[in-house]
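Per reviewer request, we include the raw input and output of the structure prediction for the construct analysed in the revised manuscript.
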Amino acid sequence: MTDARAERLLIVDFGSQTTQLIARRVREAGVYCEILPWDAPAARFEDMAPRGIVLSGGPETTTAAQAPRIPQPVFDAGVPVLGICYGMHAMAGQLGGVVERSERREFGPADVDIDDAQGFLDGLGEGGALAVWMSHGDRVSVLPPGFCITASTPSAPVAAMAHPERRFYGVQFHPEVTHTRCGAEIVRRFARDICGCEGAWTPARIIDESVARIRRQVGEDGVVLGLSGGVDSSVAAALIERAIGDRLTCVFVDNGLLRLGEREEVEAAFAGNASNALNLNLVTVDASDAFLAALAGLTDPEAKRKAIGAAFVEAFECAAEGLHDVRWLAQGTIYPDVIESAASAHGKAHVIKSHHNVGGLPDRMRLGLVEPLRDLFKDEVREVGLALGLPRELVLRHPFPGPGLAVRVLGEVTREYLAVLRQADALFIEELRRAGLYDKVSQAFAVYLPVASVGVVGDARRYEHVIALRAVETVDFMTARWAPLPHDLLGRAATRILNEVPGVSRVVYDVSNKPPATIEWE
């Protein structure tokens, strides 16, 4: 049986907000893929040896003098290429066509007329019209030699193009977004039908290959893992435990920044007990005082994250000192962590916030690094967790940031603020579950705002702080929209928080999308 990663697609990133969504669509088609920035060294493109290549969209215009260009190895690879939006423009321009600024830009829904009998887009849409999502200010005005038009709109005569002999394709619209009807089918056709991939990327294959890879990597050595109780570290622990059994030791650090009752939940779920989902060697460390001391006086989000990272290293090292034959450190790093923590040599990638899983802990502890989830997106991690037999309520639990509640208390973190936030957050989640909406939203939580607001309790004036409630809907967590929760649900949650949680005078609901906002407030 060949490695499921062997038949892979390469996605060349030109800075699009939806590049990771393209990758998700490819993987949903059962095909492994990786993302490389357009300005990566040529050798990296050649070493990938992909079955096909997708060129992403991007914020630039190909009409600019210093516009990003498609690397020559893409055209020399002899494999199918699909250009999306900017990727199509760059392909057209570099292969002898003409791209110009469009007199009428298109941003949003549009209908394209398909004219691709027996081709890539044949049979999509209704009556030859396909509803798509456009986002462009340029257009192809002259086709490159050998290309033909396969779709058009009144303002974009070349809405899609193809060179069947070379298997080069371009679409002006974005098939990766859900607004494009049949978008997933377009990606599937390219990955499976045109590139000839069999669809070997499945949870079962991921598990089998990950277990084998872990065994090869660690041999007979011991492994230590920082278990948070979140999805990523729990699935990583399950994979490693399946590979090496009791040679895995998990360390749970209670940093004082956890949700209400979280320590007890973790110990009940994972500590040595035959009735638990995972019967792990679990060591619990109470380091809450050290973490709060490290956070004292800090208000900048990045400063708080770095202080938490340093405190975690110290606590983790102390716990790991007594372990014998441990040569490896395991982390629940996932693919978006890796991508977002890497900066493009062109300078187009910016660090929005540092990621706790990508750091210097392995070097400091002189341990090798095991990251069994490093190639997986969040939803793939969940699928693997369910396939491993982990409880559904654990696998489908909402994401929780590595720094914990420290980045949900804006400004300085204190015990008092954390206690208020824990109660407010627990009440909000309780109401969501009671309404049957917890699994309908992708992430929900409360945020503590150190902004005093006047309120009235009975006949007394109250001048206390504000709680903001946040719930979002998303597929990939790269983009997200605020969840339109029922007003009566929000009313019940707000009333309970105001009545049951001391120190709160007002509750508000966050209706910001990502972008421009991030999901977390810090």
